[in-house]
Amino acid sequence: MYASGGRIKEKFDFDWKFRLQDIAEAKSPAYNDASWEDIQVPHDWSIKLEFDPKVGGSPGFIPGGIGWYRKTFQVPDSYRGKKVTILFDGVFHQSDVYINGIHLGFRPYGFVAFEYDLTSHLNYGGKNIIAVRVDHQTNGTARWYAGSGIYRHVWLEVTEPIHVTTWGTYVTTPSVNNSQADV
């Protein structure tokens, strides 16, 4: 975890649970995931599967499937009144994310980072459950082996209500020539 300029960024890679199976009830906080595999992310479930020539070369002859990830965590009372987000650096692919049973959104693409606001759905000082459904049943989704699952880091970010958003600043050069440039 590090803090800078009123922003706390906590690595959220540890203490996840995983199951390679489509279980609709897994989004519910009441679901019992005690028998699931304990993992850390980044995680690729396909790499552990058997090679299958029918799958094709694009995904490395390794099947995909549907997998679920769950993480139970606590948010301190001191985060109340702040903005709390979760940032996924990469999930391959077609992910649905839930917090405490509430659907936050769907991401169809697997090669870009994305973020969801958790603020209004958290149990401050209590237990919270993030659940991620990853659907990598389709083959030919990349021209190379991409794997399956939460394959990059995950971050919990805490900011003041008024802050610069993630990806909120940028620099452009709208006009450039041999003698000057506008930045």
Would you mind describing this structure in some detail?
The chain has 183 residues and is mainly β. The protein is built from no helices and 15 strands. It has strands at 2-4, 7-11, 16-19, 37-39, 65-74, 83-88, 91-92, 95-99, 102-107, 114-117, 127-136, 149-150, 154-159, 175-176, 181-182. Strands 4-3-5-11-8-9 form a six-stranded antiparallel beta sheet, with no helix packed on it. It has a five-stranded antiparallel beta sheet with strand order 1-2-13-6-10, with no helix packed on it. The mean pLDDT is 90.
- The arrangement of helices and strands along the chain is EEEEEEEEEEEEEEE
Q: What helical percentage do the residues reach?
A: under 10%
For the terminal residues, how far apart are their CA atoms? 34 Å
Give the strand line-up of the largest sheet: 4-3-5-11-8-9
Alpha-carbon Rg, integer? 19 Å
Protein structure class = mainly beta
Shape: flat
Q: What's the overall average pLDDT, rounded?
A: 90
Uncertain stretches: none
Instruction: Describe the largest sheet.
Output: 6 strands, antiparallel
Q: Count the strands?
A: 15
Number of helical stretches of at least 4 residues: 0
- Fraction in beta strands: 35-45%
List its salient traits.
183 residues, mainly beta, six-stranded antiparallel β-sheet, five-stranded antiparallel β-sheet, 38% strand, flat
